[in-house]
Amino acid sequence: MATNTPALLARYAPILGITSTRFYVSNVAITSNLATITTSASHGITQVGTIVTIQGVSATIDGTYAINSIPSGTTFTYVSATASLGSTAVSPVGVATFNTSTTSGFTVSNKVVQNYVATLTTGSAHGFSVNDMVFVNIGDTIYDGTQIQIIAVPSTTTFSYIVTTQTGSTTAVTQGAVGKYGAGYTTSSTNTIVTNIVVANKTAASQTFTICLDGLCIAYQETIAANSTVFFDLKQALATGKMIMGSASSPLVNIHISGMTVN
Q: Which residues contact 14 (CB under 8 A, 6 or more apart)?
């Protein structure tokens, strides 16, 4: 006879990841829309595309980005909306939180939009699949986003997703990266029934969030009001090896997923 055991499946901020590391920011600079951030100790990040959130520095620097390059053990770069900023010490120091559950990432070399479908080309084979959730940061509002679900993989170095712009000419991309989100939860040796999902917005402004169960999004870029909570009650069975994915527009949006494991 099957045994159902109540379980906490996941509780995390999707932007920050299931796992993360934090380091103080000691210096910032921006040249030609490429920000260089210096941490006060070796950050240990080696993967381009790693999703990083910077807080407590300034309105110009604070935000969430995909890492474009890693010049040294204490520096990293990302594409910024600000064109330039002289080298500036940060005092008191800010914080960089690296989403270490970002599973892979790549630089982007080309962009195009055809009939509301954006296609990006990566600098090397990406290994992405349809329904993967990615974070794009190339300094172009048509393409950039924290909640992007891949709808097609035309080749080993291209992937496509829906945008709100109808057409964009083929253009080379000289700076920018994409990072792939890790799963919020993956069923292991047992089947799982998802019973409740709670989404909490801890900010003073409305945000958006996305939740997908085995590639099917039950909420996609759904709006959540400031300082509010959204509840989902459902009975969704997931077989072994299936994933629950989440993403959001702010690191202060948290997701709590409860369910039952079936033995």
A: 181, 184, 209, 246, 247, 248, 253, 255
pLDDT at 187: 86
What is the per-residue burial (b if ≥16 Cβ within 10 Å, else e) of 34-46? Answer: bbbbbbeeebebe
**CA–CA dist 36, 27 (Å, integer):** 8
Q: How far apart are the first and last CA of the chain?
A: 9
* pLDDT value for 6: 82
Among 242, 158, 250, residue whose Cα is nearest residue 208: 250
pTM of the model: 0.93
Q: What is the CA radius of gyration of the chain?
A: 19
Domains of the chain, CATH where assigned: 4-14+183-262 (2.60.120.340), 20-99 (2.40.30.20), 104-180 (2.40.30.20)
CA distance 185 to 192: 11
